[in-house]
Amino acid sequence: MHTDARKIDNNSLIEGDICIIGAGAAGISMALEMIGTPFKVILLEGGGFEYEAEMQDLYKGKTTGQKYFPLQSARLHYFGGTTGHWAGFCSPFDPIDFKQRDWIPHSGWPITREDLDPYYARAQKNLDLGPYDYSLEYWQKQDPERIPLPLDDKAVFNKMWQFSKPTRFGEKYKATIVKAPNVHLYTYANVTDITANEAASNVKEVTVKNLAGKQHTVRAKHFVLACCSIQNARMLLASNKQAPNGLGNQNDNVGRYFMEHIEIKSAEMWLPKPDLMKLYQWEWGVKARAELAISEEMQRKHKILNGTASLNPLAVAKNWKPMIETWTADTAKTNALMSGAKKALKEGPKLKSYNSFELFTRIEQAPNPNSRVTLDKEKDALGVPRANLHWEFTDLEKHSLRKIYQIIGEQVGISNAGRVKLMEYLRDENDSSWPAFTGGGWHHMGTTRMADDPKKGVVDKHCKVHGIANLYVAGAACYATAAAPNPTLTVTALSIRLAEHLMERMKAV
């Protein structure tokens, strides 16, 4: 069922069992799990079904620290959320990503990879992926021409990726959500405040507003913040009537530990002769490929972060402009952020033999409490303080990036498969600076991190906000560490897991 919140009576009261705030990958995945259940689900989407510049403006904010994309360009504010411009890259986190690593401060999740495996398998369907099998052996059986480099997998292994179409949740699941009798979708319903009881231990209601001047109240037994990492933190910090520092922020953790994937060209690989390298190349329509990854043993030995290297034909990649320079505030205003992404995907490398490749890195950022989201003094058109993102690195990122390519270079040389040439910015071990083309993947993570101890995180292992009985957070905001893969597959898996937990809790009452 769908209702345009601009067209109902002002000050309407909307009531249900579970209120999900945000209709992107996380919120829609949760709603899909609840279709056909006895629970009345309220799904709130701030925008409509299409891109609108005035809605996108509500995501505008400021950035400091490491250069970053304009905030309104990095997320989409309409039904389906940022799946409207994602590229479809999917791979599960590695087991090491969930472990406490003594060389990485603030690492360690209260859940394991094994805890997520059943939900990863279910998430594959949501994202139109193949079977939940990311082994090299499986994909070689599908195509024997996927021949790996002859590297020692105890040092460098082939981490497999599957590619979604990419699935646009707003297009694929619109009819399913709208027709679901127990799911009540409200568009143009921006949550502007969360009201708790006086002890700030239970959420009573949320206030929604839109640019048509309407305001409504939503009451439910349970509430789930399923916006992006920046907006989830922004909403908790701005909801400060009962808790002066913001809901869930009794230990000053809300908004902290913002993480992104550092995405950056790093080296070149030269082969003795042209090779198709079909296992590693990617083009539109390819279902899977491998990236070079560092084994858990070597990560521990060298005390480095997790990261991967993708191979792009150098003849093609050398003409690519760094993404940090191409996605600007104007991108959002002209709606090119969607068509531009699709165009870039279709104009990517074509499968043919090359003898030189650019090695492009995606590496996790170490959890850093100084990398954070705070509130700005400026307010948006609905009266909510805008977000201020301070993106900050530690010395571990540069050390890890350099060591990753030293390991890859050694293994490529030992196997006589070719030679690896580091880019200039990685050669001096005493140089901790970053080049101007350093970018991110638009992968917002952290800000309401998961931890058993309330002093170390915002939500528990079930994504419930510490100290608040009926408030949850869905999505990558809950990540304790970022791992190397793009976040959408894990976001979807965690959301399915949260939906299952909530329904079990509802049934137990």
TrEMBL record:
Instruction: State the source organism's domain of life.
Output: Bacteria
The FAD dependent oxidoreductase domain, residue ranges: 17-227
Q: Which organism is it from?
A: Mucilaginibacter conchicola
Cited InterPro entries: FAD-dep_OxRdtase, FAD/NAD-bd_sf, GMC_OxRtase_C, P2Ox-like
GO molecular function terms attached to this record: oxidoreductase activity, acting on CH-OH group of donors
Q: Which UniProt keywords apply?
A: FAD, Flavoprotein, Oxidoreductase
Pfam families xref list: DAO (PF01266), GMC_oxred_C (PF05199)
Name the record gives this protein? GMC family oxidoreductase
Q: Which family does it belong to?
A: Belongs to the GMC oxidoreductase family.
* Limits of the Glucose-methanol-choline oxidoreductase C-terminal domain: 367-494
Listed cofactors: FAD
SUPFAM superfamilies registered for this protein in UniProt? FAD/NAD(P)-binding domain
